[in-house]
Amino acid sequence: MESALGIALGSGSARGIAHIGVLKAFEEHQIPVKMVAGTSIGALIGAAYCAGNLTQLEQFMLQVDWKLIASYCDFVLPKKGLMQGEKVKELITELIGVTDFNQLNKPLAIATTDLNTAEPIIIKEGNLVEAIRASISLPGIFEPVQYGNRILVDGGLTNPVPVRLFEHTDISSIVAVDLNSNVEQRNRAKKKLKSIRKAKVTPSLPDHWAFNQLEQHYKKWQQQLKERFPQLKEKKAKEEENEPGLFDVISNSINIMMHQLAATQLAQNPIDFIIRPTVTDVGLFDYDEASRLIQAGYDEAKVYIPIIEKKLGIKKAVSEY
Predict the structure, then answer these.
(1) Residues 6+ away with beta carbon under 8 Å from 175
(2) Active site residue 154
(3) Rg over CA atoms, the chain
(4) Which end of the chain is more exposed for a tag (fewer CB within 10 A), N or C?
(5) With contact defined as beta carbons under 8 Å apart, do 38 and 111 qualify?
(6) What is the DSSP letter of 170?
């Protein structure tokens, strides 16, 4: 008798594109995933997979550039967040193709976080688009989502790798996809990638391009404050040269938080397999790296295919590998 397999797709913003490669490898080898749990971008990609629209999502990700993403950024005066998120909801609807959990081909559980109580909130039914929008709501970037009587934000704050979402289900084997390991190594790799990009003669996507878009808005407001309050003096350029910018602080803080929490949760929960694609040099908003992210997820998943099949009791001819 085959075990019931569940796959937990973790948070990581752009790094989460690697989930597409993992799921492609599973589909190619007919690994029978019975249930999916997703956090943040893992919720988005998990929903596309459960709706049967993974290929459509992949095609979109492969054509992404900063101008395309910028067209979905509806900036607002930062009261609850920098972006309202209505355009992103339209994009989610377009990419997933369905709007309610009951329209999915496989069960899906989405992790979110109650901003007021810090409770992990799991959504398994109702409005799928609202649930995904809540799960991707990075604090300070997207406005939180009003969901019933709760205010919801990114699921990665409480479940960066949502293995706990399989509790009280009939799932007997769990695969976790963790994108938040090796924070120190990632930061070194990102600096190296930034230097390579600057050295290129041909124009490339700006490092942290999405954050740069947001930072431009902050600079406008900052300039207005300085004009109003002359006592706010700027540091010399040399003093600021090696200091992290506002959005570097946000990005690195999120990375550290998710890494620490993910490590704790993975150690405390019974998990059969942990897939960690090699995506250490990819920042939260490096969506232009989609091609190699998908390949990284695919390559790492293929390593685990034979042992997953053995665990599930699936027998195949050697020629199929």
Answers:
(1) 5, 6, 7, 8, 271, 272, 273, 274, 275, 304, 308
(2) yes
(3) 20
(4) N
(5) yes
(6) S
C-alpha to C-alpha distance for 298 and 19, rounded to whole angstroms:
8
Of the residues 114, 154, 281, 286, only one is catalytic, namely 154
In whole angstroms, what is the distance from residue 128 CA to residue 21 CA? 23
- Which listed residue (11, 40, 135, 251) is catalytic? 40
- Asked if the model's pLDDT at residue 149 lies above 50, the reply is yes
Cα distances (angstroms) measured from residue 82 to each of 17, 138, 213: 23, 10, 11
Exposure on the CB side of residue 142, measured as CA atoms within 13 A:
25
Tokens 């559980």, residue located: 109
CA distance to 17, 172, 174, 276, 314, per residue, from 32 (Å): 21, 13, 12, 20, 10
Which amino acid is located at 71 in the chain?
S
Using one digit for the tens of pLDDT, what is the confidence trace for 228-281?
556 545 544 444 445 555 555 555 556 666 666 766 777 777 789 999 999 878
Beta partners for residue 154, in sequence order: 112
* Angle between helical axes of 41-51 and 86-96 (0-180°, round to 10): 30
How far is it, in rounded angstroms, from Cα 48 to Cα 118? Answer: 27
Residue 166 Cα distances to 34, 36, 40, 107, 176, angstroms: 11, 9, 17, 11, 11
Q: Does residue 272 have an active-site annotation?
A: no
User: What is the spatial distance between Cα 210 and Cα 165, in angstroms, rounded to a whole number?
Assistant: 30
Lookup result for tokens 């803080």: 253
Q: Mean pLDDT across the stretch 303-315?
A: 91
pTM over 0.85: no
pLDDT in tens, 89-121: 999 999 999 999 999 999 999 999 999 999 999
